[in-house]
Design goal:
527 residues, alpha+beta, 5-stranded parallel β-sheet, 10 helices, 24 strands, 23% strand, disordered N terminus
């Protein structure tokens, strides 16, 4: 990862916000979406010598720093958990299952996307979930990639994190039967005030602290403030994209390319995929099933006077930070405990479980076909009985953790009171200073995340089903996808490490695919 030492001699970055005119003869790869997945595919393609990559991003190319680099902690947390004040936050769908996929669920439309908001947690998908992935992909992730180490190890080494299973590491925080390790986080700290940033592919092109220009990006062009309306289908193949730039008088135009990659986030990529699949087969239902998000719930606990003798096993001396352990397979969850010291003599415990929602028919992305693009998109989220079982098992684990903490600090361990998971009174935004700071009691305060608010949605374009094991659409040559939408199962792990590994894998396949013929960009009227 790049150094965090800013150089005052570097000029401010000037992003190449335009693409060549209609006389330009060729566009090798078009990537729809400039977030973590799309930018990483572009970066890897450029490293492999592909020098004609176009990234199209609906949002602007400004404010290119990670929120924890650009803001103090409280403001960064507020931007992340309460996005109403974020000018880049937009929701491009209607939820049929509100409050799930409503309220704070949406996209961050800006170059960098969610890579400028995440907290760097880098965990591999668990073996019990990978068992349902295509064998060649599992081999590349876990076994060997292109004759070298597995993709997980290679990407983790680049990020500076440990790619091994959680249960293979030495615990550093013990709480009863739970042995937790430091959460592997792709983050870099800088300055004297605890500031930090998590990895973004932008770090290779602009300084992650100062925002100043670094080297590149050679071979990559950016078209920002531009919506991808549809994939251009001709003779049963993807030939490019139809786009519309922002502005009152902006019209639609076509950009042709040898390969098109969908990287616009799970729901927007699903919308583009549905439109393309229906263009190939008009009788196909305009729906993609399998939509998932992680099932997340937990509690906050504030312990005052934590330095007295109530802490019999040294928990009052634990270093602030995030810790994690894997629960037994039946829970399909990881246990995270974040320890903070907001004031002298005060400990704040954020205890949460992140678990797997299984892909199924009850959750899906559906479009309403019309003559014009984009099609209106709706999201339906349904929890299957197996998901309800995970919710129940998570609550049992949280109860055990709460009793352990109560014993450690001499607190009365009354049973935890959980809200209805589908209509919680408190969500994870309760940690905001104006919320938890207003509480006069120590807690515990239970909460749960609504589906769609963890930024972990996926599984609508699974590898081995909608996509083949080369990340290409089985029904549409020259069309590819990346990001969590392509996961066959999500597992309990945060998806970013796998997203980066699969982006590297996809880039190698794209680089090995020769261009068919020169193409050019035209206006819709010319087309």
């Amino acid at each position: 990862m790049p150094t965090a030492d800013p150089s005052p001699d570097l000029p401010e970055w000037q992003w190449p916000a335009t693409v060549p005119d209609a006389d330009d003869p060729h566009c090798r790869v078009v990537i729809a979406g400039g977030g973590l997945a799309g930018l990483e595919v572009a970066r890897q393609l450029a490293a492999l010598g592909v020098d004609d990559v176009l990234v199209i991003e609906a949002g602007p190319a400004r404010d290119l720093l990670h929120i924890n680099s650009a803001h103090q902690r409280d403001q960064a947390l507020r931007t992340f958990l309460d996005p109403a004040g974020d000018p880049h936050f937009q929701r491009c769908w209607t939820s049929e299952s509100a409050p799930h996929y409503a309220v704070n669920a949406g996209l961050r439309k800006r170059l960098g996307g969610r890579s400028l908001y995440w907290y760097g947690a880098s965990l591999p998908v668990e073996d019990w979930a990978l068992a349902d992935w295509p064998e060649p992909i599992v081999t590349d992730l876990r076994g060997s990639w292109r004759g070298g180490g597995p993709l997980y190890e290679q990407v983790a080494a680049d990020l500076g994190v440990d790619p091994n299973r959680l249960d293979s590491r030495q615990p550093v925080l013990k709480l009863g039967e739970f042995g937790l390790v430091r959460t592997p986080q792709a983050e870099t700290r800088f300055g004297d005030d605890g500031r930090w940033y998590a990895y973004s592919p932008l770090d290779h092109w602009r300084h992650p602290v100062s925002g100043a220009a670094l080297d590149g990006p050679r071979g990559i062009r950016f078209l920002c403030g531009t919506e991808v309306l549809s994939v251009d289908i001709e003779d049963g193949r993807a030939r490019g994209v139809l786009v519309r730039e922002s502005g009152p008088n902006a019209g639609a135009r076509r950009i042709s390319a040898d390969s098109v990659v969908l990287a616009a986030g799970t729901i927007e990529s699903s919308r583009l995929a549905i439109q393309a699949l229906c263009a190939i087969d008009p009788s196909r239902p305009p729906r993609l099933k399998g939509l998932t998000d992680h099932i997340v719930q937990g509690f906050f606990l504030r312990v005052c006077d934590a330095g007295d003798n109530r802490a019999s096993h040294g928990l009052s001396d634990v270093a602030p930070g995030s810790y994690v352990t894997a629960c037994e397979d039946a829970v399909r969850s990881n246990l995270f405990i974040t320890v903070e010291r907001p004031a002298p003599g005060v400990l704040l415990f954020d205890v949460r479980l992140t678990g797997e929602q299984l892909p199924g028919t009850g959750s899906h992305v559906t479009c309403v076909p019309t003559r014009d693009y984009p099609w209106r998109t709706t999201v339906t989220a349904g929890l299957a009985p197996a998901d309800r079982e995970v919710i129940g098992r998570q609550r049992q684990v949280l109860e055990v953790v709460w009793h352990r903490l109560a014993a450690e600090f001499g607190l009365t361990a009354t049973p935890l009171a959980f809200d209805d998971f589908d209509h919680p009174v408190r969500t994870n935004a309760f940690v905001l200073p104006e919320s938890i700071g207003a509480e006069t009691s120590e807690g515990p305060f239970t909460w749960s995340s609504l589906l769609g608010t963890e930024d972990h949605e996926g599984c609508t374009l699974p590898l081995g089903d909608v996509l083949d094991d080369r990340h290409a659409f089985a029904a549409i040559p020259c069309l590819y996808a990346c990001g969590p939408a392509t996961f066959p199962r999500m597992g309990a792990a945060n998806p970013s490490l796998t997203t980066l590994a699969l982006a590297r894998r996809l880039a190698h396949f794209l680089a090995a695919t020769p261009g068919r013929q020169p193409h050019r960009m035209t206006s819709e009227a010319e087309a």
